[in-house]
Specification:
Elements lengths: L11 H24 L5 H28 L9 E8 L3 H10 L6 E5 L3 E6 L2 H7 L4 H5 L3 E10 L2 E10 L10 H22 L5
Antiparallel strand pairs: 1-5, 2-3, 3-4, 4-5
Helix pairs in contact: 1-2, 2-4, 3-6
Length: about 200
């Protein structure tokens, strides 16, 4: 099952340039209004606080949401595995789907393939890897595909990070954790499709 396409956000440098120019122009206009007696100094301070607060909210929510849903300019961190199951492809895919019934997993499936997503890049960005909530939200996606074989089916799994666009590469500890969690998700599917006595 193909991963959902994402757009690439504008460069962070361009965003900061737009914020700087807009703030500079707004400040100049407000100071002219103050100098002409149209607004007072307290009103100028309040207006600037409102403007800066608006940019802070934009960067925290709108920009974070766009970056989280954008395709990164780097190779994904991936974990691949293939194994055999005694079940036919449809039943194997159904067993994989039922292995991820917990509320933290978002599952989409068709007859012979399943995609599982966990975590939230938006939460991970806002909370950060240093908090328990942010670290738990580290997002992954796993694609499972079952194909017929002589004694049942072969199942191919590809786990990957589901992080959006960042300026830098993920830190080594993030790569290690993505690989660990990816293997853990794949093991759940292997156990669900192993069959009796395996």
């Amino acid at each position: 099952m193909a991963a959902t396409e994402r757009r690439r956000p504008r460069s962070t440098a361009v965003l900061f340039m737009v914020v700087f120019v807009t703030t500079f122009v707004a400040n100049a206009i407000l100071r002219q209004l103050r100098d002409r007696g149209i607004i007072t100094t307290p009103m100028l301070v309040l207006a600037m606080m409102f403007l800066l607060g608006g940019f802070a909210l934009y960067s925290r929510f709108c920009w974070v949401l766009r970056a989280s849903s954008s395709e990164p300019d780097r190779p994904r961190i991936t974990v691949d595995e293939t194994w055999y199951s005694p079940y036919p492809p449809r039943e194997a895919a159904n067993r994989v789907r039922h292995a991820f019934t917990d509320p933290t997993a978002r599952v989409t499936a068709d007859e012979t393939s399943v995609q599982v997503r966990t975590g939230s890049d938006t939460t991970y960005r806002i909370r950060g890897a240093g908090s328990a909530e942010g670290w738990d939200a580290l997002s992954l996606a796993v694609d499972f595909a079952a194909a017929p074989s002589e004694e049942g089916c072969s199942i191919t799994a590809k786990a990957r990070d589901d992080l959006g666009c960042y300026e830098d590469q993920p830190a080594p500890f993030v790569e290690i954790e993505v690989s660990r969690r990816g293997r853990e998700l794949i093991r759940r599917a292997v156990a669900a499709t192993a069959g009796d006595g395996q």
